[in-house]
TrEMBL record:
Species of origin: Lonchura striata
Entry protein name: 15-oxoprostaglandin 13-reductase
PROSITE patterns hit by this protein: QOR_ZETA_CRYSTAL (PS01162)
Recorded GO CC terms: mitochondrion
Domain of life: Eukaryota
The keyword Nucleotide-binding is annotated on this UniProt entry: no
Domain named Enoyl reductase (ER): residues: 76-378
UniProt cross-references to SMART domains, sorted A to Z: PKS_ER (SM00829)
Protein family: Belongs to the zinc-containing alcohol dehydrogenase family. Quinone oxidoreductase subfamily.
């Protein structure tokens, strides 16, 4: 989803005070760009630092912005979240960046977060949104050692559903340009890469089933499994998505609206599949579990069918799980990206290099097929 640029009044006096308290005395000569005003202000010795609080295109940073805020815990995103029109633009601390968001990622996880399922101690109101790509428009002095105004960055941090977000410099990832494709790698790509690397034990000839294969993270699981020379089966909901999956190398697509997934797996893969990358839950989880081969591994990275239920879960036949796993020496293991953050930057750098070499397709849903048109502006988050 993209934002249009917002211009407005110059940065408030609190920003100027924050900066001037940290400046030494200096000569009166000043470069062409102006410093922050006020009867108490003085020119600074190195005026390049003053640009850290100016829009990189030369327009002023506004004093207010739009952002989405969770005002009520609910599995219904529209009920849980409110669009605030005049929130103060936050100020970066010494080690922070102020990022003007150009694209933000919208995930099923946003529903869980706004329903209070990830952290019961967090109470409304609180900011929402996890992923953003944009450019640095202001930064603290320490952060300026590694970043400059105008630099493209990506980040994963709560509060991305806003026109501006403060991001600790250590959590930002420098980018060659502001492109929405980079956004798909932050959570969806990294989840696929790390889960398959750590839990999948992929090798040539292994059969890998990816559910919701044309989705945000499924598309990367398909491609990474193919890079490992596996045979990949992908489930999807339309022939159009099936065509996309074939274009990225999927060996067998199953349109679950026109084919019976259980029958296809039983007929075409009688010995079962070695790895399942599962994000759907409910009946699909049961089908995938039954399709495991001897020593098969099922990786749970989500259960999207249950996210809008009051409990967040769809029922599965859990009472049979121990017997099924024992019978096949199989395993089921969950994967939550937050538990693998020590390897996150390594994974992201690897994925970025793959994309830049042309070895990875990053499909982005801009809402072109939506009845209301493309996803543009924070207002469109509700229907994305």
């Amino acid at each position: 989803m993209s934002f249009s640029a917002k211009s407005g009044a110059s940065l408030s006096s609190r920003a100027a005070r924050w900066w001037w308290r940290r400046q030494p005395s200096c000569a009166a000569a000043a470069p062409a760009w102006s410093c922050f005003g006020g009867s108490w202000s003085r020119p600074v010795l190195d005026m390049s630092y003053s640009r850290h609080f100016l829009d990189f295109q030369g327009s002023s940073i506004p004093s207010s912005m739009k952002k989405l805020v969770v005002t009520k815990l609910s599995q219904n995103f529209r009920e849980a979240v409110t669009l605030q029109q005049d929130s103060p633009v936050p100020l970066p601390g010494d080690g922070d960046l102020l990022v003007r968001n150009r694209f933000v990622g919208i995930n099923a996880s946003d529903i869980n977060y706004s329903a209070g399922r990830y952290d019961a101690s967090v109470k409304p109101p609180f900011d929402i949104g996890f992923e953003g790509v944009g450019e640095v428009v202001a930064l603290g002095l320490s952060a300026s050692a590694d970043y400059t105004v105008g630099q493209a960055v990506a980040y994963v941090k709560a509060g991305s559903f806003a026109e501006y977000t403060v991001v600790p410099a250590r959590q930002a990832v420098p980018l060659p340009s502001v492109k929405p494709e980079f956004l798909t790698l932050m959570v969806s790509g990294a989840t696929a890469y790390l889960s398959l690397k750590e839990l999948g034990d992929l090798s040539e000839g292994k059969k890998v089933l990816v559910t919701a294969a044309a989705g945000g993270t499924g598309q990367f699981a398909v491609q990474l499994a193919k890079k490992a020379k596996c045979h990949v089966i992908g489930t999807c909901s339309s022939d159009e998505k099936g065509g996309f999956l074939k274009s990225i190398g999927c060996d067998r697509t199953i349109n679950y609206k026109t084919e019976n997934v259980e029958s296809v797996l039983r007929k075409d893969y009688p010995e079962g599949v070695d790895v399942v990358y599962e994000s759907v839950g409910g009946k699909m989880f049961d089908l995938a579990l039954n399709a495991l081969a001897i020593k098969g591994r099922l990786i749970v990275i989500g259960f999207i069918t249950g996210y809008q239920n009051p409990t967040g879960f769809q029922p599965i036949k859990a009472e049979l799980l121990p017997a099924k796993l024992l019978k096949k020496s199989a395993s089921v293991q969950g994967f939550f990206l937050n538990h693998y953050l020590s390897d996150y930057k390594m994974a992201l750098q690897h994925l970025l290099k793959m994309y830049e070499r042309g070895d990875l397709v990053c499909e982005v849903d801009f809402g072109d097929m939506s009845p209301e048109g493309k996803f543009t502006g924070l207002e469109s988050v509700f229907r994305a």
